[in-house]
Amino acid sequence: MLHVVQCTQVLVLAFVLLAASLAKLTVPRAVPAAPHGVRDVPTADDAHGVPAADEVYGVAAPDRRSPLLDRRVTLGLGVFEGCLGLAMMVSAHVSVRLAVTVMFAAATWVVGELRRQGTGTGCGCFGELSRGPVGRRGVLRTGLCTLAAVVALGAPHSGTDVLRQGHALVGLIFVAELALFAALSPELPALLERLGLRPRAAAPCERRRSPLAETYQALHASEAWLSRENVIVSTAPLDVWREGCWRFLVFPARVDGRDMEIVFAVSTAARHRTVRYAVVEAEPSEAPGVAAARSR
């Protein structure tokens, strides 16, 4: 039984190494899909006065990647891991097994340090797919791979020899370990999203990019606008700003012979956008002479 377990670890480790190499060498960096990119001057489309910055939602974000995600380093690691994976398949030499064990032990230490520091940087284990912060699953996964590498030190056969033997129990253990590996891999949802097999996560309303035209459409179709439309003096807003999940628009109004202002709050959510309003006293405008004296 021990012999079967050891041979299975050879296949599992070769698969992990080749998969990591393939991801590093082939998965490109996600390109921001925001129509306007990052702007230096805030506009009404910005959240809290700054551009909505989260590349997960297709908008350029600050680069929080660790040095391991530098493209040149990633390619080098990908080539190295690919060579180790192929070596595990064609050779049973102890030097190959030791190199794999040392590599996974070092990876476990690195991932553990990233988790301990809590900087939110990715480990780069699977290249651009590993951009999220390191969690407990990532640490456990690399630790189990290190354990598998230690167990595989005593395996007498290479990966191709194990496949040639076609042992049914090896196949069952291999499938079970791969299922565990997939369950511990936060990169799997990201991979499914890139392949178009899973919809992208919806941006929270406070960070969602909401064009001003969308706000106007929701406002003009709302009961709040229709009920106060007859007292609004101009359809051009006096002021527009955004806070959290709301965009505020101020319109001049004339209510019972008095100059007023109506402040509309329009939700920036993707669905079921609500509109609220409040009628407030208009700020008194200064006489031209007073304004000129203050500017001196």
Could you explain how this protein is built, in words?
The chain has 296 residues and is α+β, with helices and mostly antiparallel strands. It has 2 domains: 2-194, no CATH class; 212-294, Roll (Nuclear Transport Factor 2, Chain: A), CATH 3.10.450. The protein has helices at residues 2-26, 71-90, 94-117, 136-152, 159-165, 168-183, 187-194, 212-220, 223-228, 288-294, and strands spanning 239-243, 246-255, 258-267, 275-281. Strands 1-2-3-4 form a 4-stranded antiparallel sheet. Strand 2 and strand 3 form a beta hairpin. Helix 1 (2-26) packs antiparallel against helix 2 and helix 1 (2-26) crosses helix 4. The longest helix has 25 residues, at 2-26. It is rod-shaped, with a radius of gyration of 29 Å. The N and C termini lie far apart (92 Å). Mean pLDDT is 83; it is low at 32-65 and 287-296.
